[in-house]
Amino acid sequence: MIPLLIAIPLGTAFLISLIGGKRDLVAAVLSLCSTAVVLIMSIVLFAGLHGHTLVYSVGKWPAPFGIVLVIDAFSALMLILIYTLALTSLLYAVPYLESLGRDWKFYALFMLMLSGMTGVIITGDLFNLYVFMEIGLLAAFALVAFGGAAEEYEAAFKYAVMGSVSSSFILIGIAVLYSASSTLTMAKIAETLPSLDPKLVGWVSALFLAGFGLKAAAIPFHAWLPDAHSSAPALISSMLSGVLIKALGVYVLIRLFFNVFGAPQMILSVVLVLGLISIIGGVLLAIAQWDMKRLLAYHSISQIGYVLIGIGLGTPLGLLGAVYHLLNHALFKGLLFYNAGAVEIALGTRNLKRMGNLTKLLPTTSNTSMVASLSIAGIPPFNGFFSKLILIIAAVQAGQPITAVLAVIGSLLTLASFMKVQRYGFRGERVIEKAEPIGWSMNAAMVILAVLCLATSLLVVPGIREVVLSPAVQAVMAKTGYVHLVLGR
User: Fold this and answer.
1) Closest CA to 121 of 250, 24, 237, 207
2) How far is the C-alpha of 29 from the C-alpha of 14, rounded, in Å?
3) Is 282 within 8 Å of 297 (Cβ atoms)?
4) pLDDT class for 323, splitting at 50, 70, 90?
5) CA–CA separation, 214 vs 128, rounded Å?
6) How many CB atoms are located within 10 Å of the residue 32 CB?
7) What is d(CA 422, CA 370) in angstroms, rounded to the nearest whole number?
8) Neighbours of 464 (CB within 10 A)
9) pLDDT category, 392, cuts 50, 70, 90?
10) 425, 292 Cβ separation under 8 angstroms
11) pTM beyond 0.85, yes or no
12) What is the pLDDT of residues 211-236, one digit of tens each?
């Protein structure tokens, strides 16, 4: 079943290319069906793990001689997150793409991006990870430029340039590590690492931190994100912000620095500082914006900062908060980008000053935007409150009171920013008399994510937390276990 996780979206992308032309509805149905199948497979795999790790040797060549695919609780949880958001994005896409001109090429690129992310998540081979990352990025570059406007081409170009720079750092790091360890299998590298020159390991760590930090868009590596996320179609913005920067950036940082490098304190300290700068810097930049999608893009930087401080703390509770907030951010940020896309279709603008009272014309969009705003601002009982609370408690427990205080300040500034969004964008005094209708499946996608913003609050409940979140944290914390399980010892 494990190789099918990559083969299904990749095969669907090629199949759509073969049967393209005017049959874009067939492309939409194929994409929806294959995404739903992979989501079900991911849920089944996660439910059947029970703390174990599944390893598949490609071509029956065992590690470290061949490429291995690895499924543990963390990777399975990430797959569930990616394919849940992808499924709602495809639901949203059917009417949304009519405004851009329906095109089968969108679905082919979308499935290619999914296959790249899936490969990054489940591979146990470092160069294989790089190849899948490039597949996902190439599809993402094309999707950012999909609308064909000048600003979209410019944003895609900036994204491609910054993506190439980050990929260069990563490729150099992989080459240096391979020359020193003679292997590309991550578990074998982890086993070999103690015998390598500490200076070399430090340089490679720095290269990976810069490369994957650029993918995650943490400050100061964030310059590409506001343009790319605000220019892309709304559903692609939701995928980029919701899962792509996490799969290609944050997930790989966690996997490499905990399961391979053994969580070196110097790197964790740098990640913690980057997280704090991102929280405050991102939200201050967001508050000044009047373009709704650009405001949301800057908030992505700020919210990734929360995930980074959980990683930087390096404690089980900090990682629990990081994994939980990573999941929550995908849901409420995906929903907010759907809201922005719906308003853009209905009113032809995303400028908050030109919006007004939309509660009667767009009730689903207005109400779900309120749910997402309260979630990202960390208001109980929505999911963002619990993940931020866990991170703040983890910071206090780790003896980092300044981190806890800055996390609280960042959350208060986020609340102020989304009060502005609600005040001007959805519940303003300006009377809006007419709006273009939006499709029922767009409303359905927004309702599903709004319900999930509430439902995932239950993940903090003891009993549920131990089944869903704790196994993912245990898989990350156990470096020795990862090495032994993958190498079969």
Assistant:
1) 250
2) 14
3) no
4) very high
5) 19
6) 17
7) 7
8) 13
9) very high
10) yes
11) yes
12) 988 888 878 877 777 777 777 788 78
